[in-house]
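QA checklist item 7 of 12: single-chain prediction sanity check.
[x] sequence parsed
[x] length recorded as 181
[x] structure emitted
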Amino acid sequence: MKEQWKERLRAAQGKILPLAVKYRAVLIVLLAGVLLLASGGRGAKQETAATDVSAEPSSFDLASFEQQLCGKLAAVDGVGRVELMLSLEQSGEAVYAVNTRQTTGMDSSESYESDLTVLSDGSYGEKPVTVKNLLPTFRGAVVLCDGADDAQVRLAVTQAVSTVCGIGTDKVTVLKMSDAS
């Protein structure tokens, strides 16, 4: 039985291989088309999902950010208990798309009219189109920790907070936490 299949396979290869060589350009184009069609459905779904995510502006919660950063700092060797206070220079904001129209009157006067671009969700609801979300800008940080009397711990904490918050190391103060806290 296996030998019959092997013979059939050899016979098919003998017939198909010359045709494949002769029409290889057509086969390549056909294969590329099938691949594009197969990946086209997945790409459209991913694009729709990305659009839905960007339509809702993300909100920044300072308290949860401070709590998360405290947890990471406490995991650094020698830091111990940590308390953190961050001050904001500017809170985050969303920038929305705007349509602007310019009209010129008969008397050479120009006027501008602008309105917010909105996206309908299909059920009588509208959301503004977000162009970008600006994250908050930090002004400085004060860190209280048990290990602040060690210079290496102070340096590690200062660099970590500076990196995460995008502020200079001169804007980060690390102090020893009192035993009463």
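[x] summary fact logged: The CA atoms of residues 140 and 170 lie 9 Å apart.
[ ] second reviewer sign-off
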